[in-house]
Amino acid sequence: MSSVNDLTNGPTSLYEKRKSVFPKQVDGPFRRFKWLVMAVTLTIYWVTPWLRWDRGAYAPNQAVLVDLANRRFYMFDIEIWPHEFYYVAGLLIMAGIGLFLVTSAVGRAWCGYACPQTVWTDLFQHVERFLDGDRNAQIRLDRAPWTLTKLWKRLRKWSVWLLIAFLTGGAWINYFADAPTLQRAFWHGTAPTVAYGTVLVLTMTTFLLGGFMREQVCIYMCPWPRIQTAMTDEKSLIVTYRHWRGEPRSHGLKKASEEHIQTGDCIDCLQCVQVCPTGIDIREGPQIGCITCALCIDACDKVMGQIGRPRGLIDYATELDCEREMRGEASVSALKRLLRPRTLIYLALWAAIGIAMLFALGTRTRVDIAAAADRNPQYVRLSDGSIRNAYLVRVRNMQNRPRTMIVGLRGLPDGVMWSEGQSRAQASRTLRVDVPADQVLKQRLYIVAGAFGPARQDFVFTVQAAGDDKETAEDDESFVRPEEGQ
Amino acid sequence: MAEQKRIDHPTGTETVGHEWDGIEELNTPLPRWWLLTFYASIVFAIGYVVMYPAIPFLHGNSKGLSNWSSRRELAKTMGTEATRKAPILSAIAATPIENLPGKPTLMNVAIQGGGAAFKVHCVQCHGSGAAGSKGYPNLNDDDWLWGGDLKSIVYTITYGARNPEVAETRTSLMPAFGHDGILTPAQVQDAVSFVRVLSRQEKSSSSSRRGSALFEANCAVCHGPQGKGNRTVGAPNLADGIWLYGGDRETLTQTLTDSRRGVMPAWGHRLDPVTIKMLAAYVHSLGGGEANPQPQLVATAQATN
Asked: What is the pLDDT of residues B251-260, one digit of tens each?
């Protein structure tokens, strides 16, 4: 009865305090690979906005720029307009299938190495070890009463975390405006409010998520581990404890050999638990908290080396391989494991979307026309009895230079057009418009045609860029006349 | 359903005590930070209730310490907006209407502002697309009763048409030829025939030939010998394809018998001059706007008056 009201004590508590994790320093091939991935990803993150890319006089010279104000997305030689958002959608689909592909090939590698939550948590834990010492010193400090020394050490650590968090948030905004200009404005206090707000929010989220939430993000907040449990199968590469080799665990090899006790390779040294950044015991089997960062492999291999046993008591392995190994059969080769239908299908899908997008990018035209007919009124009868329709025509010049375009009509044989600002006397079948570089020209057009004809007559607006490239585009429209007797 | 709470061994967590077909629910503890977030949102809610209008009473509601109200916020926003617009509106006020097209920025603002004002004041008669309806002119076409240049449109909007309250109003009164006994019903039919020949809706007939003489005697003084109309008196062009009330025989018979005397309100004393200018710019932009009259044409028009 008391369990419901007692919120703090005992196994029946409804609310649980976070079990602090103090991962121990470790070295090994996987740790060094993690260092490399961290260096590469952080470098990409911080350096990319500062890369320059010459696009001529009419476009920004930042290599990667999400220009929200002008609704353009620049990535090196590629410029995406809002109506081409399907390229971004395609990239997102590729990212999704890419995650499936990576999962099917090498398991939760994203979680373990490349996820920003992992990278920044890792970075923060290095800061922690550098300032406060390794695991044991940290535990001592954590349990120590609040003295001035502890306060100083905590403030020191939080300051460095905040600095990293601020650099993280401060770099994010560089992707959305010209980085040198924005940074100058930022430090002069003249940047847009949204820039300061973004930096503040991202600084605080980085500080909280990397410094305090850490593995709880993976365990409670992130959907990906849940998806992973559905994605992994018996052929997925997961970090596995070879329990058939490790059990029963020995506590003291000398004692075991003296007493002739049959023991496994695991000496229960708890190194695998102590280095784990999410605080789990891998020997309990696959679990949602395991991000497959493989640091426990490094730790265990080192111990196995010290006690003269072969490495790999904890290792990357598939469930299928484990079963074969337990039965004493040879394990499946890595290549054969990779070249399974599931992986190949993901790869084919991923590549097909990529190739289709590259093809579309390579063949797209940088001119477009889109017309919207006036709906109210749909038509106007003029004094000579002829019928006039009005259209709002948008001509897009998606090249970084001003171009003259020729708007024309195909179909509607007796139709002539003139633009707002001209008069009917100037009407003709074609119209020259000057479209500024990288802009949309909005032009209201009037088309007049005889009163006799179908109530709805289809025709095509065409546009051709004058000059050497002769890019063309067209848009289907219709000309509306009053029904008979109106 | 018996309450059989027990500790689940693999997880070490208590069950909630429910069981369906062997499936039990674990009472997994929530993380404490989640609870703290929940408390924080309660504290926020209390702060909100204290600071902002929140509690309804029988009459009115609690005001909150911040004294915030959406009505005041709206007034403030509208005030800011009025201040923002003030320079360009005064520029429009200072520009004579006929010079407005020479200033594209002002003209564009005027067209947009006029469109907004049109939706409030004019759509009731002229329709939301300004296409009019029977008796209410279509403002999109190139046919104007009183003139389609900016200055004429401003005049028409300011003083209205056949408005008894305003002396300067656009006025002309077509006689009710049939009703007042000026023409007999048969003569009305002949005149209608001639008008329909003028507008190329009918072939010439004996009736229209009789009507020709009647037209010359009764109608040509306002509508002109070829029925081309006269804007000075607002007499419509009868030879074109546009009819305010309708060009069929029945409607024309009614028009000649009883006359048509459409009325438009005078907006000069309801709207400020800038709004009227903007309305004129908008109406002028709908596709039928005419160029400013040349000075010598104005002189001849005045000479004929």
From this structure: 999 999 999 9
Chain A contacts of B240, Cβ < 8 Å? 383-385
Q: Given CB atoms, is B5 within the 8 Å cutoff of chain A?
A: yes
Q: pLDDT tens for residues A50-60? A: 999 998 888 89
Q: How many Å lie between the alpha carbon of A446 and the closest alpha carbon of chain B?
A: 8
Give the pLDDT confidence score for residue A485 in this predicted structure: 54
| Residue from A12, A380, A447, A486 to probe the interface with B (highest B Cβ count within 10 Å) | A380
The residue with greater pLDDT, B280 or A99, is B280
- Return the percentage of chain A with pLDDT > 90, whole number: 69
Q: Which residue has the higher pLDDT, A276 or B18?
A: A276
Rounded to a whole number, what is the distance in Å from the CA of A79 to chain B's nearest CA? 31
* Distance separating the N- and C-terminal Cα atoms of chain B: 102
Find the domain containing B295 and state its range.
88-168+264-304
Given an 8 Å threshold on Cβ–Cβ distance, is A213 in contact with B34? no
The helix/strand/coil state of A78 is strand
The rounded radius of gyration (Å) of the Cα atoms in chain B is 35
Whether the predicted pLDDT of A3 surpasses 70: no
State how far the Cα of B277 lies from the Cα of B272, in Å rounded to an integer: 9
**By residue range, what is the domain housing residue A449?**
367-480
A265, A304 contact by CB (below 8 A) = yes
The confidence score (pLDDT) of residue A117 equals 95
Structural domain contains residue B60: no
Tokens representing B53 are 């209008």
For residue A329, name the pLDDT band (cuts at 50, 70, 90).
Answer: confident
Chain B residue with minimum CA distance to A386: B241
What is the Cα–Cα distance from B164 to A24, expressed in whole angstroms?
96
User: Does residue B107 have a known ligand-binding role?
Assistant: no
Give the single-character DSSP code of B102: G
Question: Does the beta-carbon distance from B31 to A18 stay under 8 Å?
Answer: yes
Highest mean pLDDT of the ranges A52-61, A157-166, B8-17: A157-166
Q: What is the pLDDT of residues B133-184, one digit of tens each?
A: 999 999 999 999 999 999 999 999 999 999 999 999 999 899 999 999 999 9
Instruction: Give the model's pLDDT for residue B295.
Output: 63
Q: Domain count of chain B?
A: 2
> Peptide bond preceding B29: is omega within 30 degrees of 0, i.e. cis?
no
Residue B64 falls inside a structural domain: no
The strand ranges marked E within A42-151 are: 64-67, 72-75, 78-80
B5 interaction partners in chain A (CB closer than 8 Å)? 3
**A18–chain B nearest CA distance, Å:** 7
- Do A31 and A116 reside in the same domain of the chain? yes
Q: How many domains does chain A fold into?
A: 3
CB B244, CB B224: distance < 8 Å: no
Residue contact B29–A381, C-beta within 8 A: no
Residue type, B131: A
Integer Cα distance of A470 and A366 in angstroms: 11
Q: Which of A6, A15, A420 should one mutate to test binding to chain B, selecting the residue with the greatest count of B CBs within 10 A?
A: A15
Q: Does B179 show up as a binding residue in the annotation?
A: no
- The CATH number for A392's domain is 2.60.40.10
User: Do the beta carbons of residue A374 and residue A480 sit within 8 Å?
Assistant: no
Closest Cβ–Cβ partner in B31, B138, B140 for A216: B31
Distance CA A308, CA A305 (A): 5
